[in-house]
Amino acid sequence: MITDPAIQTGFDVLSVRQQFPILNREVKGKPLVYLDNAATSQKPQVVIDALVDYYTRFNANIHRGIHTLAEEATAAYEATRDKTRDFIGASAREEIIFTRGTTEGINLVAYAWGRQNIKAGDEVIVSAMEHHSNIVPWQVLCEEKNAVLRVIPIDDNGELIFEEFTKLLNEKTKLVSVVHASNSLGTINPVKKIIEAAHKAGALVMIDGAQSSVHLNIDVRELDCDFFAFSAHKLYGPTGVGVLYGKKHILDSMNVFQGGGEMIREVCFEKTTFNDLPYKYEAGTPNIADVIAFGAALDFIDSIGKDLVRQHEEELLHYATNRLGEIPGLHIVGKAAKKVSLVSFRVENVHPQDLGILLDNRGIAVRTGHHCTQPVMDRFGIPGTTRASFAMYNTKEEIDALIAGLEKAIKVLA
Ligand code: PMP
User: Fold this and answer.
1) Is 347 within 8 Å of 326 (Cβ atoms)?
2) Which residues surround ligand 1 with Cβ inside 6 Å?
3) What is the pLDDT averaged over residues 206-233?
4) Where are the alpha helices (H) located in 89-219, listed in sequence order?
5) What distance separates the 2 farthest-apart alpha carbons in the chain?
6) Distance between CA atoms of residues 175 and 206, nearest Å
């Protein structure tokens, strides 16, 4: 009888691994064990090929050209918009804005929506587990407008304290911006409940989907969020591309973000009129090649099956949590009931950076430090953690290698 659920469901991690050429390389003479997927994922051959194919066969600027190359490039770029709409369940392609990444998507909303809608005395709510990308833009906005930034506290397990959130909501709350899944704790937040409560109080909701988009099925219509931002590079796609989803009527009503080519309808010195959605928010020549390659990444994820990947990653999370728990003096930071597949931990008397260096000597890539979530580290009274984060191509054997590496490193360092 086969007991491994991944085998039962037909998920074949070895054939998945074969599609990622980088996984064949060695680091410091050892096979690469890449456990830094929450920072960025590796890219399958089809994504690399899509980049090469674009530059080899149909590189051209998009939208305005009437020649064949421009038409082919435009069609491929716009095809990714349709794939992205389907990927997150948006109602219309106009709601999909290509950005540089999650950070730019949040900044776009803080700038274009925020400067128009936030006034003195208004309140914006974030949580204590936000990435700096979902803190600083709101802080800057609130300072500029004399508005107030409120913070939902988290408990010792790294879960949001929902009751405290509802206490923060009031008629001055204009926006709630929260992370769907924490990059440093792994916590999956109850965003649907958060959105419902915020809407009842008359506030809009922005979701930082940088981590959730790769691990969870996203349905923005079901969630009913007003904005949702994520990055292609965490989704097996290229760097330099992200997506901002916004409800059409809100995006329509907002001020522009950057001015320039593409986002205009007509320009004269007396008055400029702006282009329709989504182009209104895509000023200048976009990252054409990488958007097209992101389309290949979305096709790739579809071909593997997100549900199978989720099941595999949950197995890895469960296995890693148990095995790490066997190491004396190791404490997992972030013990939420619902987590994406990453584990942050600290080891008594050992600095995370030293651990990271010794693991790298064995070809094992983990991330150490505050993970751009300094308030989380402050909340737990620690300088940083070591984080192992898993993707579809990771294996239990790689977790065994991590455990062996940790045991050796701790012996040296503690
Ligand atoms: N939010 C979260 C939760 C993240 O994990 C990250 C990336 N580490 C970001 C925002 C920022 O994403 P990017 O750097 O791709 O803009």
Assistant:
1) no
2) 101-103, 131, 133-134, 179, 183, 208, 210-211, 231, 372
3) 98
4) 102-108, 114-117, 136-145, 162-168, 191-200, 212-215
5) 76
6) 7
CB 290 within 8 A of CB 240: yes
Residues with a catalytic annotation lie at: 372
Q: How far is CA 211 from the centre of its chain?
A: 4
411 by Cβ neighbours in 10 Å (0-12 / 13-18 / 19+) ranks as exposed
48-107 confidence digits (pLDDT tens) = 999 999 999 999 999 988 999 999 999 999 999 999 999 999 999 999 999 999 999 999
Per the DSSP assignment, residues forming a β-bridge with 274 are 264
Give 129-168 pLDDT, tens digit per residue: 999 999 999 999 999 999 999 999 999 999 999 999 999 9
Protein residue with least CA distance to atom 4, ligand 1: 210
pTM for this predicted structure? 0.97
Q: Is the pLDDT of residue 1 over 50?
A: no
Q: 259 in the Ramachandran plot: left (φ > 0), alpha (ψ -120 to 50) or beta? A: beta
Q: How large is the C-alpha radius of gyration of the chain?
A: 22
Q: Which of 99, 103, 341 to mutate to test the pocket of ligand 1 (most atoms within 8 A of CB)?
A: 103
Name the DSSP class of 263: S
Ligand 1 atom nearest 39 alpha carbon: 8
Rounded mean pLDDT, 179-206: 98
For ligand 1, the distance from its centroid to the CA atom of residue 40, given in whole angstroms, is 9
Mutate to test the pocket of ligand 1, among 100, 136, 138, 183 (most ligand atoms within 8 A of CB): 183
Non-local (6+) Cβ contacts of 52 within 8 A are: none
**What pLDDT shows up at residue 6?**
47
| Contact criterion met (CB below 8 Å) for 369 and 333 | no
Closest CA to ligand 1's atom 8: 39
DSSP3 helix / strand / coil % (the chain, rounded to 5): 45, 20, 35
Instruction: Evaluate if residue 391 carries a pLDDT over 60.
Output: yes
pLDDT tens by residue, 339-388: 999 999 999 999 999 999 999 999 999 999 999 999 999 999 999 999 99
Cβ proximity of 149 and 124 under 8 Å: yes
